[in-house]
Amino acid sequence: MFSGSIVALLTPFTPDGEVDFVSLRKLVEYHIEAGTDGIVAVGTTGESATLTVEEHVKVVAKTVEFAEGRLPIIAGTGANATHEAITFSRLFNNVGIAGCLSVTPYYNKPTQEGMYQHYKAISEETDIPQILYNVPGRTGVDLQPETVARLSEIPNIVALKDATGDLSRVQIHRELCGKDFILLSGDDSTGLDFIKQGGTGVISVTNNIAAADMATMMKLALEGKFEEAEIINQRLMPLHKNLFVESSPIPVKWAAHKMGLIDNGDLRLPLVELSEKAKPIVAQALTEACIY
């Protein structure tokens, strides 16, 4: 259902701060032509935290419209209030998405039982396939493998995006959740190794600006051609690392603008433009990766 190279798509803005749907259409076409296997619309990289509910829904709906069924669209639906996450899931019921990506509740730091009940409540309000998203570095909570295993027993909870970078968890999740549960990496630096350990794919920031390379690398990896995949991965490693030299999506948005993929690199406050100190670092990474 969800595998290979999936992009955590950025959300472009116009100079006056509105969503730039012209650039959004260009981005969707770029990924389809490059062979990207799926798009996450309005996840963390899509600046979900600063979009209004109306903007959030419209960006997802337009992404589905622009894709025209040529690749699956996953909507970011996470919130730290369970009722808000349920509302987002309901709003997307008839939009045509393939799944929902729901981050663990942030800031209020629920227990493992709290997270279990959170996801269980969401799953009971929609038939759309649900992808759990664990990213402790941003949320302050860590969805433990045992809790993932409990949640995997719920029919429409079908996958986990694991952004911990802890490769030892891949086999643990596989053993606890079974062979059909989908395991997706959320960490570009360890994404290829994640596949080697038994993962299914990567939801990637790097994919925003190196879509064809990421698609080829993931295809090779899933075919077991790890030596060939590793050649590409090593070339992209400066991007995997330096697209996080400042808070994502600041660096990747600057890079996408520099490459002409979007018309400008504006962000929503409290995020600001890439610093002058960091710009040469990202520019050098683009050069070393041979994509600009």
Automatic annotation (TrEMBL):
The gene is dapA. Pathway: Amino-acid biosynthesis; L-lysine biosynthesis via DAP pathway; (S)-tetrahydrodipicolinate from L-aspartate: step 3/4. It catalyses: L-aspartate 4-semialdehyde + pyruvate = (2S,4S)-4-hydroxy-2,3,4,5-tetrahydrodipicolinate + H2O + H(+). NCBIfam families: dapA. The record marks T44, Y107 as: Part of a proton relay during catalysis. The active site is at Y133, K161. SMART domains: DHDPS. Its main location: cytoplasm. Gene3D superfamilies: Aldolase class I. Keywords: Amino-acid biosynthesis, Cytoplasm, Diaminopimelate biosynthesis, Lyase, Lysine biosynthesis, Schiff base. Pyruvate binds at T45, I203. One of its GO terms (biological process) is diaminopimelate biosynthetic process. It comes from the Bacteria. GO terms for cellular component: cytosol. This is 4-hydroxy-tetrahydrodipicolinate synthase.
